[in-house]
């Protein structure tokens, strides 16, 4: 009653906490480190370009080292020009000190806790409670990033939010009277590219009409057109003269072994199993009548991208999407790989989402084009885990829509923001 009866209250924290399990003395690794950094704690920022060789191949026992901006996981949003490198990120439970003096000070204070900010660590996730006349009672929502709070506050105050990096409507399940939302992707369509031929394994000819082929990766960029041979759906930028995205279905039970789309990477495109090594391209640049070059600029992390593709194609009847983000001067900056599959009842007839909507599962990676060194000598799973992102992260990075526009907005929002958690 009273003021509380007409006030919406939100209680939240900025991060979680962890017990300190390991103190790492940087002076013991290299005496130079003690005086060449700007901060300690759960991570270390160096302000001079020093050698990180003494930290090489520690297999992420206590920390991971990123030698340059392009190596840092995209989900950290840590790519400002003023960030120093190498950047050292402590594993959960690790804390850095500069030298023996700081080590003795920390031990004398018996310091027990510290925090990082990796939202894939369950113990770093923030607390969130809300109550009030505009809030539904006894509702639990999946974990979400704090960047989405702004839109919630705007809805509670019934004001129009300014453009932001949150996902509109993500927290509508909390609201007694949620605003009516329009699907922003409803009018997105991609026209077929013109005068394109392709070379299949045994014949050449005009590409069938793309409008007859299902592809759900979309953009509203008019300079992008689509190409398909019935197995592979591809988006090509006439402005960049480069492929920006592609999509295919890989299903163990729906395709014969000799006609199955495979995932071997080569310098052209995803190949089909036409030759023994599977490297023959479904689209060959030399067979194109137009000036289109259906390829991408070379990138160094091709083997790591292949590992992500292989991991996803282990799923049953997965819809696979691969795309490229180019720097302004032309080279490939990121390669994204996303997979969608269904539990239990499988896909709807149109293969746009699952018969039971909540059975849709996603897994996505944004891999820096130059992330090749594996400086930390991690195993494949640990290395790939660094580059896990949300679908929403990829969509903001690329201005593409990866989820079908026919998908209900509430399901789309949840899938676009899904990020796995891990107990470290």
TrEMBL record:
Keywords: Glycoprotein, Hydrolase. InterPro entries: Alkaline_phosphatase_core_sf, DNA/RNA_non-sp_Endonuclease_sf, Phosphodiest/P_Trfase. One of its GO terms (molecular function) is hydrolase activity. The keyword Nucleus does not apply. It holds the Pfam family Phosphodiest. GO terms for cellular component: I band; sarcoplasmic reticulum; striated muscle dense body. PANTHER family: ECTONUCLEOTIDE PYROPHOSPHATASE/PHOSPHODIESTERASE (PTHR10151), ECTONUCLEOTIDE PYROPHOSPHATASE_PHOSPHODIESTERASE C27A7.3 (PTHR10151:SF114). This is Uncharacterized protein. It comes from Pristionchus fissidentatus.
